[in-house]
Amino acid sequence: MTNLIAALNPVALSFGGLEIRWYGVIIAAGILVAMALATKEAEKKGLDPDFIVDMMFWTIPIGIIGARIYYVLFELDYYLQNPGEIIQVWNGGIAIYGALIAGILTIYWYTKRKGISFALTMDILAPAVLIAQSIGRWGNFMNQEAHGEEVSRVFLENLFLPEFIIEQMNINGIYYHPTFLYESLWSLAGFVLILFLRRKEQLLRVGEVMFTYVMWYSFGRFFIEGMRTDSLYLFGPIRVSQALSILLFLGAMVYWAYRRRNNYPPDPYYTDISRKRV
């Protein structure tokens, strides 16, 4: 079948030698949406909305640095031979798990510094992060990256995908699994699920929105990662993101059971910001 649409240009705007790429625009849009949702939820919980903005001032840049360090560590042989490329984030090479780990550590430090519950803060942020991840994956779409193995055009047509997605998955005449789309939709579904559960005061306790996020995302990422062609590997066929997904899923499940056993408060709209127990 003849291609109907050309691949989309990854560059949004160009001024002389300066390029603004859609990847950056889309990531920024996801962050802004997440901050708006988290700020609104923080107000409902009785927190100063500026708390979220101030915290993100630290969390976002440290998260980007963490994403880059994570990627470099698992491609260390290459970067030891090309040390000048370590800081060249604009050439690609960041990992979402690195951003999450660095971001969570920063949030933990910041909430302890401010005397605000870490668990409550993570409950506020969890659905916002999921929607940001859902939006952000479309940056990979624009770059024609984070895709899966080769498939036929007929396979993509049978998924009832619009033409512009099908053709963006056509790279040098070969069609690929749109794994960016699978993860985007999985994150969107998790966002909707968490919003639903958060409204049911009898279902979730403080901190369990966070655990729901961890289990949901890691479960889906495990399977989606297995389809991708750009995975980082620990050794042999063991993919880093799949191993970490298993650890996170099991860790969240065990800690959830521990908190339930210790009778943490059942109210997801808990507003005692001075509570230090996490």
From TrEMBL:
Any GO molecular function: phosphatidylglycerol-prolipoprotein diacylglyceryl transferase activity
Enzyme Commission number(s) of this protein: 2.5.1.145
Transmembrane regions: 20-39, 51-74, 94-111, 118-136, 179-197, 204-224, 236-258
Keyword terms, alphabetized: Cell membrane, Glycosyltransferase, Lipoprotein, Membrane, Transferase, Transmembrane, Transmembrane helix
Pfam families recorded: LGT (PF01790)
Residues the record lists as binding a 1,2-diacyl-sn-glycero-3-phospho-(1'-sn-glycerol): 137
GO-annotated cellular components: plasma membrane
Known pathway: Protein modification; lipoprotein biosynthesis (diacylglyceryl transfer)
Coiled-coil intervals: none
Subcellular location: Cell membrane
Chief location of this protein within or outside the cell: membrane
PROSITE patterns: LGT
GO terms under biological process: lipoprotein biosynthetic process
Organism domain of life: Bacteria
Function summary: Catalyzes the transfer of the diacylglyceryl group from phosphatidylglycerol to the sulfhydryl group of the N-terminal cysteine of a prolipoprotein, the first step in the formation of mature lipoproteins.
HAMAP family according to UniProt: Lgt
Name under which the protein is recorded: Phosphatidylglycerol--prolipoprotein diacylglyceryl transferase
Species: Trichococcus flocculiformis
